[in-house]
């Protein structure tokens, strides 16, 4: 069972903010940045701060560990896209706590990078996977549908939580998300 870092809440009622523009384009494995992740958010806007915390990488969570990814604002029922060329690995369960067990939003998926993104892996939370395991997808290909994560926490801004790993080590995806 996958234990989320976000047992204590991962959302925001606050106004989403744009992060400042980056100065240097990232070149992970020689590739470009992430494709658009959510059909209702063309700029990959990251959730701003609210009483639950911030959508930024490493942001605190009251009574819990820090946030291990970034939160990409995403409206319910939006299509969710692969950020880079990848193989669909599996579905995941976000929370193991009883409050979330069996809820439609308690789901996500794992993608493993191919080509220039070999060695990278991404976990996307609150997304209902719509493609089969083992499928190869291009950046921007639809891989799922955004659930209603906010239904469990009134005032939350719905978002896809995105965790990036390189050679199985967690890394900060921010520079790949907002370039
Ligand atoms: Zn999050």
From TrEMBL:
Protein's UniProt keywords contain Zinc: yes
Superkingdom per UniProt? Eukaryota
Disordered: where is this region?
1-33
Q: Where is the M23ase beta-sheet core domain?
A: 67-173
Q: What GO molecular functions are on record for this protein?
A: metal ion binding
Q: Which UniProt keywords apply?
A: Disulfide bond, Metal-binding, Signal, Zinc
Output the InterPro entries linked to this UniProt entry. Dup_hybrid_motif (IPR011055), LECT2 (IPR008663), M23ase_b-sheet_dom (IPR016047)
* Family statement drawn from the similarity comment of this UniProt entry: Belongs to the LECT2/MIM-1 family.
> What PANTHER family has UniProt attached to this entry?
LEUKOCYTE CELL-DERIVED CHEMOTAXIN 2, LEUKOCYTE CELL-DERIVED CHEMOTAXIN-2
Give the protein name, as stated in the record.
Myeloid protein 1
Q: Which organism is it from?
A: Stylophora pistillata (Smooth cauliflower coral)
Instruction: Give me the gene this protein comes from.
Output: MIM1
């Amino acid at each position: 069972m996958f234990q989320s870092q976000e047992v204590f809440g991962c959302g925001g009622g606050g106004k989403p903010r744009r992060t400042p523009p980056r100065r240097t384009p990232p070149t992970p494995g020689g590739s470009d940045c992430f494709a658009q992740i959510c059909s209702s958010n063309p700029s990959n806007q990251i959730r701003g701060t609210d009483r639950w915390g911030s959508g930024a990488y490493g942001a605190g969570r009251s009574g819990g560990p820090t946030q291990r990814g970034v939160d990409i604002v995403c409206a319910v029922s939006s299509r969710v896209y692969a950020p880079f060329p990848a193989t669909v690995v599996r579905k995941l369960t976000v929370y193991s706590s009883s409050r979330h067990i069996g809820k439609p939003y308690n789901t996500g998926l794992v993608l493993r990078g191919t080509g220039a993104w070999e060695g990278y892996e991404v976990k996307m939370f609150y997304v209902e996977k719509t493609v089969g395991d083992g499928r190869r997808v291009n950046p921007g290909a639809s891989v799922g549908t955004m659930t209603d994560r906010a239904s469990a926490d009134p005032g939350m801004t719905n978002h896809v939580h995105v965790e990036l790993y390189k050679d199985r080590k967690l890394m900060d995806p921010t520079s790949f998300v907002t370039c």
